[in-house]
Specification:
This protein is an alpha/beta fold. Helices cover 47% and strands 13% of the residues. It contains eleven helices and seven strands. It has helices at 33-42, 46-54, 56-63, 69-80, 87-94, 102-111, 127-134, 147-150, 157-167, 181-189, 200-212; strands at residues 17-20, 27-29, 98-100, 116-121, 143-146, 174-178, 193-196. The strands form two sheets. The chain has a five-stranded parallel β-sheet with strand order 5-4-1-6-7, with helices on both faces. Strand 6 (174-178), helix 10 (181-189) and strand 7 form a beta-alpha-beta unit.
Length: 219
Protein backbone atom coordinates (compact mmCIF):
# COMPACT_ATOMS: atom_id res chain seq x y z
CA UNK A 1 0.00 0.00 0.00
CA UNK A 2 1.28 3.49 -0.89
CA UNK A 3 0.71 6.16 1.73
CA UNK A 4 0.23 9.70 0.44
CA UNK A 5 0.76 12.49 2.94
CA UNK A 6 -1.03 15.84 2.61
CA UNK A 7 1.28 18.47 1.15
CA UNK A 8 1.01 20.64 4.27
CA UNK A 9 2.63 17.97 6.45
CA UNK A 10 5.31 16.82 4.03
CA UNK A 11 8.85 17.58 5.21
CA UNK A 12 10.42 20.64 3.54
CA UNK A 13 12.59 19.97 0.51
CA UNK A 14 16.29 20.31 1.15
CA UNK A 15 17.87 23.47 -0.23
CA UNK A 16 20.32 22.59 -2.99
CA UNK A 17 20.76 25.87 -4.89
CA UNK A 18 21.67 29.45 -3.92
CA UNK A 19 21.33 32.32 -6.38
CA UNK A 20 22.62 35.89 -6.19
CA UNK A 21 21.99 39.26 -7.79
CA UNK A 22 25.04 41.16 -9.07
CA UNK A 23 24.50 44.92 -8.69
CA UNK A 24 24.00 45.86 -5.05
CA UNK A 25 25.10 42.42 -3.85
CA UNK A 26 28.24 41.04 -5.51
CA UNK A 27 29.23 44.44 -6.89
CA UNK A 28 28.33 47.46 -4.79
CA UNK A 29 28.83 51.23 -4.82
CA UNK A 30 31.08 51.65 -1.79
CA UNK A 31 32.03 55.25 -2.60
CA UNK A 32 29.33 57.48 -4.04
CA UNK A 33 31.80 60.32 -4.54
CA UNK A 34 32.69 59.70 -8.22
CA UNK A 35 29.04 59.31 -9.26
CA UNK A 36 27.98 62.33 -7.23
CA UNK A 37 30.76 64.42 -8.78
CA UNK A 38 29.70 63.37 -12.28
CA UNK A 39 26.08 64.23 -11.51
CA UNK A 40 27.02 67.66 -10.18
CA UNK A 41 29.15 68.27 -13.25
CA UNK A 42 26.07 67.51 -15.37
CA UNK A 43 23.77 69.68 -13.27
CA UNK A 44 21.63 66.85 -11.92
CA UNK A 45 21.28 64.73 -8.81
CA UNK A 46 22.89 61.31 -8.47
CA UNK A 47 19.40 59.78 -8.46
CA UNK A 48 18.56 61.52 -11.75
CA UNK A 49 21.82 60.29 -13.25
CA UNK A 50 21.11 56.71 -12.20
CA UNK A 51 17.64 56.95 -13.69
CA UNK A 52 19.15 58.23 -16.93
CA UNK A 53 21.48 55.23 -17.14
CA UNK A 54 19.22 52.45 -15.87
CA UNK A 55 15.67 53.78 -15.89
CA UNK A 56 13.24 55.16 -18.39
CA UNK A 57 12.24 53.46 -21.63
CA UNK A 58 15.78 53.34 -23.00
CA UNK A 59 17.30 51.88 -19.83
CA UNK A 60 14.57 49.25 -19.63
CA UNK A 61 15.09 48.30 -23.28
CA UNK A 62 18.84 47.97 -22.70
CA UNK A 63 18.29 45.67 -19.71
CA UNK A 64 15.89 43.60 -21.80
CA UNK A 65 18.47 43.24 -24.56
CA UNK A 66 16.35 45.18 -27.03
CA UNK A 67 19.14 47.71 -27.60
CA UNK A 68 22.87 47.24 -27.26
CA UNK A 69 24.69 48.41 -24.13
CA UNK A 70 26.85 50.76 -26.19
CA UNK A 71 23.73 52.39 -27.59
CA UNK A 72 22.40 52.97 -24.07
CA UNK A 73 25.60 54.64 -22.90
CA UNK A 74 25.59 56.82 -26.02
CA UNK A 75 21.96 57.74 -25.28
CA UNK A 76 22.84 58.68 -21.69
CA UNK A 77 25.70 60.87 -22.87
CA UNK A 78 23.52 62.67 -25.41
CA UNK A 79 20.79 63.29 -22.85
CA UNK A 80 23.33 64.61 -20.34
CA UNK A 81 25.11 66.81 -22.89
CA UNK A 82 28.33 64.80 -22.59
CA UNK A 83 30.60 64.45 -25.67
CA UNK A 84 30.10 61.06 -27.33
CA UNK A 85 33.82 60.71 -27.98
CA UNK A 86 34.30 60.59 -24.20
CA UNK A 87 31.68 57.95 -23.43
CA UNK A 88 34.31 55.67 -21.86
CA UNK A 89 35.20 58.44 -19.39
CA UNK A 90 31.51 58.94 -18.57
CA UNK A 91 31.04 55.24 -17.88
CA UNK A 92 34.26 54.96 -15.86
CA UNK A 93 33.30 57.84 -13.57
CA UNK A 94 29.75 56.56 -13.16
CA UNK A 95 31.11 53.24 -11.87
CA UNK A 96 34.17 54.78 -10.21
CA UNK A 97 33.02 53.95 -6.68
CA UNK A 98 31.90 50.39 -7.40
CA UNK A 99 33.81 47.39 -6.04
CA UNK A 100 33.55 43.63 -6.39
CA UNK A 101 33.12 41.96 -2.99
CA UNK A 102 36.02 39.51 -2.99
CA UNK A 103 35.18 38.14 0.47
CA UNK A 104 31.58 37.38 -0.50
CA UNK A 105 32.80 35.68 -3.66
CA UNK A 106 35.20 33.58 -1.58
CA UNK A 107 32.23 32.54 0.58
CA UNK A 108 30.29 31.60 -2.55
CA UNK A 109 33.26 29.52 -3.62
CA UNK A 110 32.96 27.55 -0.39
CA UNK A 111 29.20 27.18 -0.86
CA UNK A 112 29.80 25.89 -4.37
CA UNK A 113 31.46 22.78 -2.98
CA UNK A 114 28.11 21.55 -1.62
CA UNK A 115 25.44 23.58 -3.41
CA UNK A 116 24.53 24.63 -6.92
CA UNK A 117 25.07 28.37 -7.31
CA UNK A 118 23.68 30.85 -9.78
CA UNK A 119 23.14 34.47 -10.77
CA UNK A 120 19.91 36.25 -11.69
CA UNK A 121 20.61 39.85 -12.64
CA UNK A 122 18.91 42.68 -14.48
CA UNK A 123 21.86 43.62 -16.63
CA UNK A 124 22.72 44.92 -20.08
CA UNK A 125 24.16 42.59 -22.67
CA UNK A 126 27.79 43.56 -22.01
CA UNK A 127 27.71 42.19 -18.46
CA UNK A 128 28.71 38.62 -19.33
CA UNK A 129 32.05 39.87 -20.65
CA UNK A 130 32.70 41.50 -17.26
CA UNK A 131 31.69 38.31 -15.43
CA UNK A 132 34.02 36.20 -17.55
CA UNK A 133 37.02 38.53 -17.76
CA UNK A 134 37.26 41.53 -15.43
CA UNK A 135 35.46 39.85 -12.52
CA UNK A 136 36.49 36.24 -13.34
CA UNK A 137 33.38 34.87 -11.61
CA UNK A 138 32.31 32.21 -14.10
CA UNK A 139 33.85 29.20 -12.28
CA UNK A 140 31.84 30.02 -9.15
CA UNK A 141 28.41 29.61 -10.77
CA UNK A 142 26.51 26.78 -12.42
CA UNK A 143 24.02 29.09 -14.15
CA UNK A 144 24.16 32.79 -15.02
CA UNK A 145 20.87 34.36 -16.13
CA UNK A 146 21.07 37.97 -17.33
CA UNK A 147 18.01 39.94 -18.35
CA UNK A 148 19.79 41.43 -21.37
CA UNK A 149 20.24 37.92 -22.74
CA UNK A 150 16.99 36.36 -21.52
CA UNK A 151 14.76 39.22 -22.68
CA UNK A 152 12.92 39.34 -19.36
CA UNK A 153 13.62 41.21 -16.13
CA UNK A 154 13.09 40.66 -12.42
CA UNK A 155 10.55 40.51 -10.87
CA UNK A 156 8.91 38.77 -13.85
CA UNK A 157 8.45 35.12 -12.78
CA UNK A 158 9.90 33.85 -16.05
CA UNK A 159 13.45 34.91 -15.22
CA UNK A 160 13.43 32.97 -11.94
CA UNK A 161 11.89 29.95 -13.65
CA UNK A 162 14.58 30.06 -16.33
CA UNK A 163 17.30 29.96 -13.68
CA UNK A 164 15.58 27.05 -11.91
CA UNK A 165 15.40 25.09 -15.17
CA UNK A 166 19.07 25.67 -15.88
CA UNK A 167 20.03 24.55 -12.38
CA UNK A 168 17.59 21.61 -12.55
CA UNK A 169 16.04 22.35 -9.15
CA UNK A 170 12.55 22.92 -7.81
CA UNK A 171 11.63 26.40 -6.46
CA UNK A 172 11.50 25.09 -2.87
CA UNK A 173 15.11 23.93 -3.22
CA UNK A 174 16.44 27.38 -4.12
CA UNK A 175 17.30 30.59 -2.26
CA UNK A 176 17.57 33.96 -4.01
CA UNK A 177 19.51 36.92 -2.58
CA UNK A 178 18.84 40.46 -3.84
CA UNK A 179 19.01 44.00 -2.47
CA UNK A 180 15.52 45.02 -3.68
CA UNK A 181 12.44 43.73 -1.89
CA UNK A 182 10.32 43.60 -5.06
CA UNK A 183 12.84 41.19 -6.57
CA UNK A 184 12.68 39.03 -3.45
CA UNK A 185 8.88 39.14 -3.70
CA UNK A 186 9.16 37.93 -7.28
CA UNK A 187 11.29 34.97 -6.25
CA UNK A 188 8.92 34.06 -3.43
CA UNK A 189 5.95 34.27 -5.81
CA UNK A 190 7.35 31.31 -7.77
CA UNK A 191 8.04 29.36 -4.57
CA UNK A 192 11.70 30.17 -3.88
CA UNK A 193 13.15 31.23 -0.54
CA UNK A 194 14.31 34.83 -0.39
CA UNK A 195 16.83 36.87 1.59
CA UNK A 196 17.09 40.61 1.15
CA UNK A 197 20.70 41.79 1.10
CA UNK A 198 21.63 44.58 3.51
CA UNK A 199 25.26 43.68 4.28
CA UNK A 200 27.57 40.70 3.63
CA UNK A 201 27.57 39.79 7.33
CA UNK A 202 23.77 39.91 7.58
CA UNK A 203 23.14 37.88 4.44
CA UNK A 204 25.67 35.19 5.39
CA UNK A 205 24.15 34.88 8.87
CA UNK A 206 20.59 34.60 7.50
CA UNK A 207 21.65 32.16 4.81
CA UNK A 208 23.47 29.95 7.30
CA UNK A 209 20.39 29.97 9.55
CA UNK A 210 18.20 29.02 6.61
CA UNK A 211 20.47 26.19 5.52
CA UNK A 212 20.86 24.88 9.08
CA UNK A 213 17.10 25.13 9.61
CA UNK A 214 16.33 22.68 6.84
CA UNK A 215 14.21 25.00 4.78
CA UNK A 216 12.59 27.51 7.14
CA UNK A 217 12.20 30.73 5.15
CA UNK A 218 14.23 33.72 6.35
CA UNK A 219 13.62 37.13 4.75
Amino acid sequence: MVLYLPSDILPPMKITAILFDIGGVLVRTVDRGPRQALAERLGMSAAELETLVFGGESGQRAQLGQIDEAAQWAYACRQAGWPLERVAEFRAQFFGGDELDAELLAYIGRLHRDYKTGIISNAMNGTRALIESAWAMTPLFDAIVLSGEAGVMKPDPRIYQLALVRLEVQPEQAVFIDDFQHNIDGAQAVGMHGIRFRSPEQVIAELEALLDGGGVQVV
